[in-house]
Amino acid sequence: MNAITLRGTTLAHDDLGPRAGLPVLLIHGHPFNRTLWAPQVAALTGAGYRVVTPDLRGYGASGVTPGKVLLSDFADDLAALLDHLGIEQAVVGGVSMGGQIAMEVQRRHSGRVRALVLSDTSAPAETDEGKEFRNQLADRLLAEGMDGYAGEVIGKMLAAYNVAAMPDVAERVLDMMRATDPRGAAAALRGRAERPDYRDTLACVGSPVLILVGADDVYTPVADAEAIHRLVPHATRAVIEKAGHLPGVEQPGHFNAALLDFLATQVAGRD
């Protein structure tokens, strides 16, 4: 693990694979950390890609900013991290909230984006009901901690049938959620409640885009992926069977195959 102080906080990150390889920046969702991407890091570095996996501000081993952290704050952190690493352009990918941060990177720093990978995410701004829910959840996490919440949502983070079928995966996901600092999780929830609408941003993307979604995702279902695909008709879409909201950990073989094929056929060598 590496750590660097940028924009007033410590950002922990891994930078693995050959330095001459095509850079791929992978952004975890809430309430996880960079180790969520372990199956993808192994596959991508093995194929010759340079892979950067940060812990977002407030998550994992990175510093915590209490209060509110906007998606734009995360995006600016990542642009600063790319600067620090000497990476001009990268494939930028994320899952769930990480996918929305990837869209924010596209919105604010489009010149840094070689291609987009959007997994199990959605583009519209938060609804009024959603804003209230996220702020109430932030209050709850600060008051109660992460344990009860983690137990309640594990059957939605993973497809419910995978919780029993994949106990090691379920335990790894639970461990990440329980280890998250409630202050960081709450700050991100409050900021995410204020996220902008990314549909206009996506409609203007000319670079390659991969849309991935678990077939049984209850948070951002296949319909959300189809809506993104309608905005970006040149995108490649892959539905990962027997997976929920985190197909990269539930079905890493299928997820990685789709990702590697996209990078090889749509991105690598593209001017």
From TrEMBL:
Molecular function, one GO term: hydrolase activity
UniProt source species: Streptomyces mutomycini
A Pfam family recorded for this sequence: Abhydrolase_1
InterPro entries in UniProt: AB_hydrolase_1 (IPR000073), AB_hydrolase_fold (IPR029058), AB_hydrolase_sf (IPR050266), Epox_hydrolase-like (IPR000639)
RNA-binding found in the keyword field: no
Signal peptide: none
Location of the AB hydrolase-1 domain: 23-250
Sorted UniProt keywords: Hydrolase
Name of the protein: Alpha/beta fold hydrolase
Transmembrane segments: none
